[in-house]
Structure formats: structure tokens, C-alpha cells
Design a protein that fits this description.
This protein is an alpha/beta fold. It is 33% helix and 27% strand. Strands 1, 2, 7, 8, 9, 10, 17 and 18 form an eight-stranded mixed beta sheet that branches. An eight-stranded mixed beta sheet has the order 5-4-12-13-14-11-16-15. It has a two-stranded antiparallel ribbon with strand order 3-6.
Length: 408
């Protein structure tokens, strides 16, 4: 007989685990189904602004974050072509004072492990690996299309054929947290696919001992140049440097772990300063991925199915808010779950969607615009650099008050 659960979350990444933990903290059990056979130490670094840090502290993760994450001193902005520092936005000494929470950088696997351990300790979430949701049907109706619109009818989830688990799961409600290439999303909206941005991102990790001395390992570095930009910051409690290079590109293959040829990347930075050449030359291997996005849809729910995180609003990484928006989604969704009710009311789901639509749309638009600004060339790049250099550092940080202040 198939297992039956109240809330099933598809996806064991930051979005899915944060959602499960948010539900647990409100006394609600959850089940997470994850397509991989086991969680692994893969991925890149992630920045957690004060808006995300505040929520994670609320969920009880402050001590673990302070052990595994890093608090950068500031964000140093450079002209990547000339190697000239333009400005430094203070973070460690100012973030908590202004926004009430710190600014963290952390390896994605470390954050995932923190969430997993916390869920294990609470013991209110079952995690089922090797289960990728492929098809969704209604458990108690012959009219599948009509029944899926009804949030009070249970649905039956079947795993993809490539996974070894053949059993199905019955759920009262399904949360799609399965990322930008979400399989759950197609059951909420038809004929919607992520669109390629014209950019690829390349990532690498370096031990701090191998980082050239001219780089400030205690800071986030942002280097701006025409048709490319470079970001680096500490992870692994400051023991490793996460490097991300973004270039204008036509390679548009979906995926996250493609091997990248250093010669191709270096050619995009050939006119850059010697500082950046020294850093890039140390890297022995790169992983690359094409950057896609999807305009935030107006419908996030369909009957008993709800979307969160990249499954509903994948965004470009130039505002460093993809993970933070998923964390915000999760705690907001949990607010509308009443553990005394068996089913989520349609009005509750609409309230969750309405609470998140404008904010995620704004963040997505700001991130897209920054991707354009970072890659300016000629007179536009000169004007950008002059404006950045003339600003008071603390005023640059306060420009993000709309983003980092409490919003959920």
C-alpha cells in the first residue's frame, strides 16, 4: 500500500529543507523527497544577506552558522580592467547594526548539512532519497484534471523511471521545491520554460593558502569589466575561497556540473588587470553552468500543489539572493499552514502567493539589471565606476535597505 502524508516537499535543496524546517518549527510534520540517492558535498558558495540570516537565526541555526559560515569584512568593488579599487561597502561591522542580522558567506553543502542535521534532531521530517517526482495523479478520482484543481483531494506522486524507487506516495499537499528545471512546475503552469540569459558562470574553490597575497581573503571581491565580471569570497569558515566568473556566452546547455576549459575562460579576461590574471591562473579546474531565468508567474498554486524557490522564480545570481528568496518563501508559506487543518485552504495559498509576488519580482528585476551594469563597456563603464567611487561606503550599503530589512 502506498504511503500517505499530509505535506510532501519535492526537492532536498535549500528551498525544500528550509521549508521543512519552517513547518517543523510551527509543529507541522513534513516529508522531503529528493531525486539523488544521497546528499553529497557538491555545489558552490552562497551569500546569505541579513534578510536570509535573520530567518535562519529564527529557525535556530545561529550557532551552526557561526561555526561553518564566514562574515566578510566588506564588499570590495574593483575596476577589473585597470585593477583599481573603486569602493568598499562595509559588512561585518555594519550589517548587524543597520539591519539587525549579519552577512554570511558559506559553502552550499555546509548550509545543506546544517539544515539536514537540524531536521534530524527535531525528528518531524522524513527524508526519502532516490525519488524524483515524475507524474502527479489524483488518488480518489477518475477525472484527473478536475480533481487536481481541488485542494481537498489527495494526490498520488510517482517517481521517475530512472530512479530505483518504484513506490508511489499519496499526499494531501505537494510543495514543488525542485529547482529551475522543476518537474512539479509543469503541473501548475503549462508551456513555461526557463530562458537563457546569454551568460555562463564558472566556479572554482581554492584553499586560502593558494590565493595570491594581493587578494583580500577576508572580503567579498567584485571585479567589473566589459562583457564579464568576477566575484570571490571566503567559505568553509574562511579556509577556502569561492570564485565565480561570469562571461557573456552562447553556450546554453542545462546543468550545473559541466567541466569548463580554462583557456576559454581566460580569453574572456585577456584584457583584464594582472591582479585578476594571477588569481585565475591558480585555478586548475572549473565547473560551468549556463544562467537561465523565468519571469515570476502570477500563479504559484494549482489545487493542492504549491511552488517555492527556483521552481517558481529562478533568478540571475547578480544580487546574490536566489537562496535567500527560497528561504523567505519557506517561512512565509509555513505561516499559512494551520496544523489543526487537514488541508490548506485555497485562500491561504493565495495569501502566500500574494505575499511573495511583488518582492520576488522586484529582486529578479534588480538582479537582471545588475548583470547589465556589471558588463558595461566604454563610456557607460567609466560613468559607472565614477559614480561608485564617489559614493560614501555606508550609503552604498543602505541602498539595500529595501532588501535586507525584515520583509516576511
Amino acid at each position: 500500500m502506498d504511503e500517505k502524508y499530509s505535506i510532501v516537499i519535492a526537492g532536498g535543496g535549500i528551498a525544500g529543507l528550509s521549508c521543512a524546517l519552517s513547518l517543523n518549527k510551527r509543529g507541522q510534520d513534513a516529508v522531503v523527497v529528493e531525486k539523488t540517492q544521497q546528499f553529497s558535498e557538491v555545489g558552490a558558495g552562497i551569500q546569505l544577506g541579513p534578510n536570509a540570516a535573520r530567518i535562519l537565526h529564527h529557525l535556530g541555526l545561529q550557532n551552526a552558522l557561526e561555526e561553518h559560515a564566514f562574515q566578510p569584512e566588506g564588499l570590495m568593488i574593483f575596476d577589473g580592467i585597470r585593477g583599481k579599487q573603486l569602493n568598499t561597502i562595509p559588512l561585518k561591522q555594519s550589517s548587524e547594526k543597520i539591519f539587525g542580522a549579519p552577512y554570511y558567506t558559506i559553502h552550499r553543502a555546509d548550509l545543506q548539512n546544517i539544515l539536514l542535521k537540524t531536521l534530524h534532531d527535531i525528528k518531524r521530517t522524513e527524508i526519502i532519497c532516490d525519488f524524483e517526482v515524475e507524474t502527479i495523479a489524483c488518488a480518489n478520482s477518475n477525472n484527473n484534471d478536475e480533481a487536481k484543481k481541488n485542494p481537498t483531494l489527495p494526490i498520488e506522486l510517482h517517481s521517475a523511471e530512472k530512479t530505483s524507487s518504484s513506490k508511489s506516495i499519496i499526499a494531501d499537499h505537494l510543495v514543488g521545491a525542485d529547482g529551475i528545471w522543476s518537474r512539479v512546475r509543469k503541473h501548475v503552469m503549462q508551456n513555461v520554460s526557463p530562458r537563457f540569459s546569454g551568460k555562463t558562470a564558472w566556479r572554482a574553490l581554492l584553499p586560502i593558502s593558494e590565493v595570491p597575497e594581493s587578494f583580500y581573503a577576508s572580503h567579498i571581491g567584485l571585479w567589473l569589466g566589459h562583457n564579464a565580471h568576477l566575484v570571490h569570497y571566503p567559505v568553509k569558515s574562511g579556509q577556502m575561497l569561492n570564485i565565480v566568473a561570469v562571461i557573456d556566452d552562447q553556450w546554453a546547455k542545462p546543468g550545473w556540473h559541466e567541466n569548463g576549459q580554462a583557456e576559454l575562460l581566460n580569453s574572456a579576461f585577456s584584457e583584464w588587470s594582472e591582479h585578476t590574471h594571477r588569481l585565475l591562473s591558480v585555478v586548475q579546474s572549473w565547473k560551468k553552468w549556463a544562467l537561465f531565468e523565468l519571469p515570476v508567474p502570477k500563479r504559484w498554486n494549482y489545487g493542492p500543489i504549491t511552488l517555492i524557490g527556483d521552481a517558481v522564480h529562478p533568478m540571475l545570481p547578480f544580487l546574490a539572493q536566489g537562496g535567500a528568496m527560497a528561504i523567505e518563501d519557506s517561512i512565509t508559506f509555513a505561516k499559512y499552514v494551520d496544523r489543526k487543518k487537514r488541508f490548506l485552504e485555497p485562500l491561504d495559498l493565495e495569501r502566500y502567493q500574494d505575499a511573495r509576488f511583488k518582492r520576488t519580482s522586484r529582486v529578479q528585476k534588480k538582479a537582471r539589471n545588475l548583470g547589465i551594469i556589471y558588463h558595461y563597456k566604454g563610456l557607460m563603464a567609466q560613468a559607472r565606476n565614477i559614480i561608485i567611487a564617489k559614493r560614501a561606503p555606508i550609503s552604498l550599503l543602505k541602498d539595500y535597505s529595501w532588501l535586507y530589512n525584515d520583509s516576511v
